[in-house]
Specification:
2 domains, OB fold (Dihydrolipoamide Acetyltransferase, E2P), five-stranded mixed beta barrel, alpha+beta
């Protein structure tokens, strides 16, 4: 296949979709939607046992090391409603998959975040843990450079799960409406550009200020975007225009939809 999977996924997202929530691509593309397995890692840690599963994207090794899995995000256990149920199912699945097994972390040596957690993805038998969760509709892909080596393949797997309505994709709740956004945390929402602040920032649905990592000349009033990442309260000077702010870590976390 000459085109890269990431380019194909981007093309599929840009294809005309249903009015309800961008869940269906046109029939002409349906035959080419498939999941790309993630590549075998080039660097692997020694084997570790699992001491504890904290949630769908955080575990503790038997040596006490805390690990934040990268390339995807599961919902929080204390979330209400369907998000909380999804988070608990993600933890249950991870606990089951990792029970009494040895795993390896990739890449290795692993980077460490500001909380002292190792950053990487677990290689389990012949798959990454991220592949399993995303394919079940229990986690969302998110790119946070430089720990984003698996985003291309995970995006392909997410699209297949989305099209097949696996896990939370079956509920019709995603992407969330920007107008309904009422608290911080990880969000995956869709909205239209209502104001352009400058070449690297704009506002969706008079609710969410989006900060881009670089200028994007293709942003125009009325364009619809799906955005994903961690939302926080906007600074006072912009709250009247947009009470919430999302600082994108990577341009792939912003996709135009029709």
């Amino acid at each position: 296949m000459t085109a890269s999977i990431s380019a194909l996924v981007d093309a599929l997202f840009r294809t005309k979709t249903s009015v309800k929530g961008t869940f269906f691509v046109t029939l002409a593309f349906s035959s080419v939607v498939f999941a790309e397995p993630c590549p075998t890692p080039k660097g692997l840690s020694p084997e570790f046992g699992i001491n504890r599963v904290i949630d769908g994207d955080t575990v503790v090794f038997d040596d006490g090391s805390r690990v934040r899995l990268t390339g995807f995000n599961s919902f929080e256990l204390n979330d209400s409603g369907w998000k909380g149920r999804s988070a608990r199912e993600a933890k249950r699945k991870v606990t089951k998959w990792l029970s009494r097994k040895k795993v390896r972390l990739a890449p290795w040596p692993a980077a460490v975040d500001r909380y002292g957690r190792l950053l990487g993805n677990l290689w389990l038998d012949d798959k990454y843990l991220g592949e399993l969760l995303v394919s079940e509709g229990l986690a969302l892909v998110v790119s946070v450079p430089p720990q984003n080596k698996l985003v291309s393949c995970l995006s392909s797997i997410e699209w297949a799960a989305r099209k097949a309505r696996k896990g939370f994709w079956s509920l019709g709740q995603l992407p969330e409406r920007i107008q309904a956004m009422d608290k911080n945390g990880f969000r995956f929402g869709v909205g239209s550009v209502t104001k352009i602040i400058d070449s690297k920032s704009f506002i969706l649905d008079s609710r969410l200020r989006v900060l881009l990592p670089k200028a994007d000349p293709n942003v125009h009033i009325g364009v619809r975007f799906e955005v994903r990442g961690w939302v926080s309260r906007s600074p006072q000077w912009v709250q009247n225009d947009a009470p919430w702010t999302l600082k994108l870590k990577d341009m792939t976390n912003r996709v135009r939809v029709f």
